[in-house]
Structure formats: C-alpha cells, structure tokens
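The pair is quoted verbatim below.
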Amino acid sequence: MTDGVGRGALTDVAGLRVGHAQVAGEHALTGTTVVLAPEGGVTAAVDVRGGGPATRETDALDPRNLVERVEAVVLTGGSAYGLDSVSGVMAWLEEQGRGVRVPDRRHVVPVVPAAAIFDLGRGGDWKVRPDAATGRAAVEAAAASRDGAPLAEGGVGAGTGSLVGPLKGGVGTAGTVLADSGITVAALVVANAAGSAVDPLTGVLYGRYYEGRTAYPAPEVHEAARARLAALRETAGPPPLNTTLVVVATDADLSRSQAQKMAGTAHDGIARAVRPVHMMNDGDTVFALATGGFPLGDGPLALNPVLAAAADVVTGAIVRAVLMAESVTGPGGVFPSYRELYGPDSALGVL
C-alpha cells in the first residue's frame, strides 16, 4: 500500500536530477527537459501507446536488446525536429565519459532515449524549435542541481508550450513512499494532451476524483469557464497533434522486464487524468527508471505495490501540471490556464 500521493517530486528518487531549458525569443514557446541519472546509469524501459509518437532510442530499451542502463532521458518540444536537442545531451555525456563502453574501453556511446511533444507554432513561429544548445543547457542545469532539489513546474522546459485540450498545460511532478517497504515511486510529466483534463459536467479535473478530496466549482464559475472555452474553440484551428510524456521512477531494484511492466501500468495514470487518451493524434510515451537502491521483495507479486503507485503518481503529476500552468497570450494564440478559469481556490489541497 502507499501513504498517498503528496507533494513529492521525481527527485525524491535518490540520484535523479532534472534540468529545464527554454528556447529564447518573442515567438518561442518551447523547450527541453532532461532527467539525468546518477553516474553509471539506471535500469530503463519504455511503453509507447499514442498513435503519433516522436521518439528516439526507444528500441534500445527493449529488454531483449543490448543496452542495460542509460544515463539520461530527454523530453522535448518541437515534435520530431526537437529531437535534435538530444545531440547536445549526448555531447555533454561523452565529455563526462558516460555512456555504453565500446570494446576498446577508451570510448563511450551515450544512448539517450527521448520523446517529443507537438508544440510547433504555439509561440507564433513554426520554425522555432529546441536544438542541441537547448538540450545541452537542460542537461547542464540538471547536473548543476543538488540531489533531491525541488522541481520547477508549469510552463518550463518541455512544458513551455504544452496544452491539455484548450487549456495551458505544463510540467508536473508527484511522488509517494510505499508504507510497507519504504520504496519511493515518483513521476514527472509533460502534460500536452489532445484530450481534456476537465470533467465537462462539473469542471473538476478528472485526476482529482482519485484524491478523495474533490472540491466542486460553483455552478456559475463552471458555466463561465465553459462559455470562455466555447468561444476559444470557435476561433481555434484544426485539432491539435499532442502528446503526454512521462518519466516514472523508483528506487526499487527492478529488472528491465519489471521496469517495462511499470511503464505499462503508469499509462493507467494518464487514462485517469485525461479523456480521451492514446488517440491517433497523441504520442503518449512513458519511460520507467529504476535506480536499484531497495530490494523489491520475494515472489512475483512483490512488484504489485510499485505498479499501483506508478499509476497513482502519474495521475497526481498531471493534476499538478494543469494547476501549476499559467495562461499564455501571444502571437501563437490564447491559452488560458485552469486557475484563470476556475479561480485560485481550484488549486487548494495541491499547492
């Protein structure tokens, strides 16, 4: 069982560090986030369920394949173009001598799994995208942070230009500690979903129904929010090409196959918080990391509490991403935040 998803963060998993970088410029609304592993790497896996993913090195994480551990994971804006940010991360890792050792033992090849959201043009210029310099800035920010550092959320890093339906999205994080074992499970998300995070009948964030402390907006507040969103839809362009990205991590000692199972169940956390999910215009991708600090326990069912917690923390992280987002109005469009529509009290119990 768990103690409940609280205000934890991905960096509660000892050794993991996170860095954000944004692309500068008046017409820029995009960026990159890097999750940096402790030196020597971590066990990693992935589960991709969206119909339109933009990914890199995901095949390397298949448990049947060679790479045992990875040193970093990149989440980025810019759709497939933004995957160029990975080259900056690879260059930094190579300089540190971190990566897969080649047979001569004198050289490394950093294997850096990555996934991108679609945020092209949201700042007003289709050609503004994260590049190698953005990736390098993000990994350097991660390396410069201290162990267990609090994480910036909302419109930062890869969440700078993200949307959740018509609302501004962003980066969110949450974590928990398993009461029976002391194992930590935590997640960081980039919420950029084609679906909605808001129940149209009540105005409540779907993910908050799982917290056991749901506060319903006043009917007049909800109606005003619905009218504002309906007006925005009338002037909106074609349906968005979006993606929710997740890194879920634990300090349990997991095999690669167990990590892959955790990545799969973590998708349930997205499905609780966003409807619909895993559509053809989504690229929903979950990376799972295990640092191996705690023994899992005996028997095949010992993994179950970790799996359940993985889904819970993903739901909690998406709630935080939406609540921590701030409204954006610019050349690329008008993107209101949930708190602008429903008031600052909508975040009570989370912030």
